[in-house]
Each structure stands twice: as C-alpha cells, then as structure tokens.
Write a structure and sequence with these properties.
The chain has helices at residues 13-24, 40-51, 101-116, 130-139, and strands spanning 3-7, 56-63, 68-76, 85-92, 120-125, 142-152, 158-167. With 172 residues, the chain is an alpha+beta fold. The chain has a single domain, classed as Aminopeptidase. A seven-stranded mixed beta sheet has the order 1-2-3-4-5-7-6, sandwiched between helices. Strand 2 (56-63) and strand 3 (68-76) form a beta hairpin. It is globular. The N and C termini lie far apart (32 Å). The mean pLDDT is 91.
Length: 172
C-alpha cells in the first residue's frame, strides 16, 4: 500500500486525534500523554488558525485509501532573537513505521523551514525511543543536550528528554 505527504486540513482533525491517541496509548510511551490529546474541535481550530499564519505548519502522511498514518507539526519560535528556530513533533502509526514516512515528513519540515526562513529545526525525544533517535540522526539531527525530568506525563511521572537539532541546508 502506498502513501503520500500533504499539508493537513481542518477536515483531518478527527483522524489526527485518533492517530495521536493510538500512538499515545502504545506501551512504548512515545508521547507525553497516554490518552489525553486535544479534542477534534480543538485540533480543527488549530489547523484552521495555522493556515492564516506563516509561523507553523502541520503535514500528514495519507494512504491511497485515505487513512492518516503520520503527522508532523512544526512551529517557529516566537521570540525575535530565536525566530530562526522551529520546534517539531512527529508521530507515525505503529503499523506504518520503518517505511520512509518519518523521513518524508521530515523532508516536508525542511522544505517548510526553507520557505519560512528557518535555519534550525529542533525536537525533543525520549532517551528510550532508540528507533526515533536513529531516524533523526540518519536524517542529520545532532544531539545538543540532555534534559533531566524535563516533562511530566499525564500519569504524573517525570521523564527525561534529549534535545536534537538539524541545521536547515540552504536551497539549491
């Protein structure tokens, strides 16, 4: 089965919430939340809002059958001294991992960053998420720091995070 990457649309809200809840409930603990993701209405409002502002974008990976199997969000830092930096978040449905979807979504983030004048993409990844770190490192992300007990999960547990960053290459 094949898939493609495209910008997210407000009509994708329910499917994106379902994807986040599925990934968040996996035993690996890949997301901060295990069950509480924003509501479909909140997701729809967010997707509508970012269409009007150049500081953020959301991309999805969609199968030819119309199922959303990946999501990447990217958002520019709003501080003027670091507006050349954007944070990103990435998730791919369990059955669709290791098929190039994460890499394709990261490519979309780099294209967006070039157009937005962003020079650096950064993300946090949990130290136990070795598969994600491998993908990011193969893509060109470098580890920039280790943040002890940086996040508090919805369960109340504190978890460490590794800060990784990617220098956005100039367009050719």
């Amino acid at each position: 089965m094949s898939w493609f990457v495209r910008p997210a649309e407000p009509a994708d809200a329910e499917a994106l919430v379902a994807l986040a809840r599925a990934v968040g409930s996996e035993p690996g603990g890949w997301l901060l939340t295990t069950s509480d993701w924003r509501s479909a209405a909140d997701e729809r409002r967010y997707l509508k809002a970012i269409r009007r502002f150049p500081h953020a974008a959301v991309y999805v990976a969609e199968t030819d059958e119309g199922k959303l199997v990946g999501r990447l969000s990217v958002s520019r830092d709003q501080n003027p001294s670091s507006s050349h930096v954007a944070d990103l978040g990435l998730m791919v449905a369990a059955d669709w991992r290791r098929q190039g979807i994460g890499r394709a979504l990261l490519d979309a983030a780099v294209d967006w960053a070039r157009g937005a004048g962003v020079r650096k993409l950064e993300l946090h990844v949990f130290p136990h998420n070795e598969a994600a770190m491998k993908l990011y490192e193969e893509f060109g992300f470098e580890r920039e720091g280790y943040r002890k007990q940086h996040y508090r999960r919805s369960t109340g547990d504190y978890v460490d995070a590794i800060l990784m960053a990617h220098a956005v290459p100039p367009s050719h």
